[in-house]
Write a structure and sequence with these properties.
Blueprint lengths: L10 E2 L6 E2 L2 H11 L18 H23 L6 H16 L3 E3 L6 H5 L3 E3 L4 E10 L4 E9 L4 H9 L6 H6 L1 H4 L6 E6 L10 E4 L5 H5 L3 E3 L3 E6 L40
Parallel strand pairs: 3-9, 5-10
Antiparallel strand pairs: 1-2, 4-5, 5-6, 7-8, 7-10
Length: 267
Amino acid sequence: CETCSKEEAKYRCPRCMKYSCSLLCVKKHKLALSCNGVRDKTAFISVNEFTDLNLLSDYRFLEDVGRTADAAARHCIVHSPATKRLLYCLRNKARGCNIELKTLPVGFTKRRENSTTFNSMENKFYWHLKLVFPHCHAEYTLKGVPDDKTLADILKPYIDPVESDPVVCQRLKIYTASPQSDVRILMKIENRSRNSVRYNELDASRSLLDNLKGKVIIEYPTLFVVLKTLKNDMVVLGRDGSEPAENSDSESSSLSSVEEGEIRDSS
């Protein structure tokens, strides 16, 4: 058992493949890793490991996608003029700020979740924002984040040792115990192949709007908060968009990747 390391394992999680010996250990591993226990139907499988069962699973998955897309296309909201005007306005305003905002069809999870609005009176975006803390397997969703708020202020309630919520602080203690200079904020670069995932590093001292300029966003921004001192798998492009050197240490641009499945719906 990979949870208690005492008993012989009897179960294997379909999602993360962790071995467990009992229902109690299954629940503990789900809580610790934020795992839902549901098999990832889109997980990569090499050709050598591909079986007839995988083929059947893919076929059923595509059937489910087809039914979902058909149901979404028939939904009355899709054809609502008000909805189309709202999305057009958001994309147009984003384009004016040098942000390429892309929206997904109705029925996709990110489209359903997105609560981003634009206040014409204030000429300001209020973003739906997701924060991911890979080292602690934690995610938080923020709504109505003004675009003129700095990333440092956005993160204060989570990783600031003084201002953060006690419960959140305990869960993110790796971050709160680290110097602020070790914190890196990354954002995935969209429109790249799955075997070439790259990230941009954002400036915590600048506003959310300034950091989003020149970026492609699918529905809403997702920010990954990592520490320089802990190894990750995330490859960060340089300021000029150049690839990092292959043999760099953990404090350089090449870190180890943590994010997969966060944006499954948009693939």
